[in-house]
Amino acid sequence: MADHARSTIVINARPAAVMGAIADIPAYPVWVGQIEEAEVLESGPDGRPRRARFRINALVIKDEFVNEYTWTADSQVTWSMVQGEAMSLQDGSYTLRDLGDGSTEVTYDLTAETKVKIPGMLRRKVQNGIVDAALKDLKKHVES
Questions:
Q1: What does the pLDDT read at residue 135?
Q2: In whole angstroms, how far apart are CA 125 and each of 4, 55, 121?
């Protein structure tokens, strides 16, 4: 069964700077806690990643997977997993809203399903933790 998590944070930077950090997938292992390895496999005509491979270690799940991305200027990026070892589904998005004062509201949505049976309460706790940590890591990275 797929689980969904959503969280929002305000980052003291303009949307272009925030989206620039999100698009810099090769840098993820430096600032995203659960990501051990990340590489762009294919870029789109705008230079942003179209397909990327990740290796993660997120407490109860270790996985290697490939995501495909769709970018909408500096307002949204969505992705879907096209290949995974431990996960059977991963759909996500970052949606950015310019607050007009030099800051950006960022909402992270993530829906995931694992092939391995993990108790529901633990699955949801891990997924919520991943979403919250990703936003905090993004904020710290962009604001530093």
A1: 92
A2: 11, 20, 6
Contact 57, 81 (CB under 8 A): no
With CA atoms as reference, report the closest residue to 25 among 68, 83, 86, 87: 68
100 secondary structure, DSSP code: S
CA angle 55, 59, 60 (to 5 degrees): 95
Q: What is the pLDDT of residues 66-86, one digit of tens each?
A: 999 999 999 999 999 999 998
Q: What is the DSSP letter of 29?
A: H
Report the distance separating Cα 112 and Cα 129, nearest Å. Answer: 13
* Contacting residues for 73 by C-beta, under 8 A, at least 6 apart: none
Residue 111 neighbours by CB distance under 10 Å: 16
